[in-house]
Amino acid sequence: TDTRTFAAVDLGATSGRVMRARVGPGLLELAEAHRFPNTPLRSPDGLRWDFGALHRGVLDGLRAVAAAGGAHSVGIDTWAVDYGLLDADGALLDQPYHYRDPRTEGVAERVRAAVGPADHYAVTGLQHLPFNTVYQLAADGDRLAAARTLLLMPDLLVHRLTGTVGAEVTNASTTGLYDARAGTWSKELLGRVGIDPALLPPLRRPGDPAGTLLPHVAEATGLPTTTPVTAVASHDTASAVAAVPAEGPDVAYVSCGTWSLAGLELTAPVLTEESRAANFTNELGIDGTTRYLRNIMGLWLLTESQRTWREQGLPHELGPLLAAAERARPFAAVIDPDAPEFLAPGDMPARIAAYCVRTGQRPPEDQGSVVRTVLEALALAHARTLRRAAALAGREIRTVHLVGGGSRNELLCRLTADATGLPVVAGPAEATALGNVLVQARAHGLVPDRAAMRRLVATTQPLRHYTPGGDRAAWDAAERRIGPA
Ligand code: LRH
To answer: Whole-prediction pTM value?
Structure first.
């Protein structure tokens, strides 16, 4: 029987990892080859990614993969929207901006004057987030003068490894410049926003070949130059959704990490005015599917609280904090996790307290209560978002699959089951890396189709089941405390 090894590079907002996976009939086994921190740089000109560190982390990871026996192919995914700019010589102009940098404040209003929100949504189907690529580009101004090529983060790393230039479509769909129906860059939008179409490379699809390793990369990693890099669903969320261990009209998912992405997989985008008003996005999944979902601020609220506590010399280990949250009084305060003041890095517990004061609530009294408030807020946002997605798409949800790092958080899983009133299947935690691997495995003939990919996840990965319980009336009352979705 045929068994192969694939390497998945998966960069998240707080850490990067390079995984090695064995795939064969009934076999899907993931092992971490290398993990490294992703620490953004605060410079006088804004919050940037430390691209050199990420690039090095990827090479170190591939060296570990080579040492462990090599890989049949390599795939790369990262978070969405951010990009690097190359000059005429193919050199990176400067460090890519972090989407949490405030330079896009007020920029959306300017773009709105060139493209009305209704027109923009009718073409892209993209939810409004202040940091969508189109707004970042509008904020770039002179920085664009010397730029000849824009590469989204995963494509930038592919370029570093292979020298090829391309834009993988699932991630291109998060830019605000991609025509969801035509499946191409929107020349019309680019013209109206004043972005040179020549900046944007040709599109490639998950499964397409994306070159082979450059000689110096082979030398640095110990992998042969013949090693193919395969385009995967390079938007991490698209990879995570590809590894949800079920599909069907009654299945919903929450991909829960730094962000919670809650929604449905559809066969066509929903581009209605009602959908736009509810700020649902139609991002592209594998095989032309639509990821119909909304961004929820996610575990960022918790990790940023932990970071604050660490700096203040307070306890910040997750285990004890979650134990304290279990004991804390339910619904001490109810917050909207998507309040704009939670987006930027900073003292999260202080911001949560300020939110409570502003909304006439008593702030959570201790760390356990802060953590419980955050997890209840996320569970409630999961429930409201899924209910709304189902209504807008004309679906009925019977199961919620919670994937990603958040699936390890038992309290969050239980609260999500309680808030939605639906059974929650939790796992896999490494859905993104698995989705990355499975798209490669399919492209290289080891798995026949999408349904088989998902069956393979379902039969090989540990999953936990949560049955809804809790106090329905208390959740309804909590929901009334934050107002309409
Ligand atoms: C999650 C994610 C999400 C985007 C955000 C920028 O990692 O890719 O889907 O909206 O980062």
So the answer is: 0.98
CB atoms within 10 A of CB 421: 15
Residue 120 has pLDDT above 80, yes or no: yes
Asked whether the bond before 428 is cis by omega within 30 degrees of 0, the reply is: yes
Ligand 1, closest atom to CA 13?
7
Q: For residues 380-394, give the mean pLDDT.
A: 98
Does residue 258 line the site of ligand 1, with CB under 6 A? yes
The residue among 369, 228, 257 whose CA lies nearest residue 10 is: 257
Is the C-beta atom of 295 inside 6 A of ligand 1?
yes
Nearest CA to ligand 1 atom 1: 79
pLDDT in tens, 78-95: 999 999 999 999 999 999
The protein residue whose alpha carbon is closest to atom 10 in ligand 1 is 80
Q: Does ligand 1 come within 6 angstroms of the Cβ of 300?
A: no
Distance CA 76, CA 160 (A): 11
What angle, 0 to 180 degrees and rounded to 10, lies between the N-to-C axes of helices 133-140 and 107-114?
A: 100
Strand partners, 32: 19
Q: What is the pLDDT of residue 1?
A: 57
When pLDDT is averaged across residues 39-53 and rounded to a whole number, the result is 96
Q: Which helix (H) or strand (E) holds 232?
A: none
8 A C-beta contact, residue 328 and residue 368: yes
- What is the average pLDDT score of the chain? 97
How far does residue 99's CA lie from ligand 1's centre (Å)? 9
Counted residue by residue, the chain has a size of: 485
At 106, the amino acid letter reads G
Closest-lying ligand 1 atom to the alpha carbon of residue 131: 6
Separation of alpha carbons 226 and 72, rounded Å:
10
Q: pLDDT category, 483, cuts 50, 70, 90?
A: confident
Q: What mean pLDDT comes out for the span 24-30?
A: 97
The closest-lying atom of ligand 1 relative to the alpha carbon of residue 82 is 6
259 lines ligand 1 (CB under 6 A): yes
How confident is the model over 245-269, as a mean pLDDT? 97
Q: Which one-letter DSSP state was computed for residue 202?
A: P
Residue 81 CB less than 6 A away from ligand 1: yes
Give the Å distances, CA to CA, from 383 to 266, 276, 294.
19, 19, 12
For residues 409 and 374, what is the distance between their CA atoms, to the nearest angstrom? 13
The β-bridge partners of 74 are 7, 229
Give the active site residues. 236
Share of the chain above pLDDT 90, in %: 98
- What average pLDDT score do residues 406-421 get? 98
Its ipTM equals 0.99
Our answer on whether the CB atom of 78 is closer than 6 Å to any ligand 1 atom is no
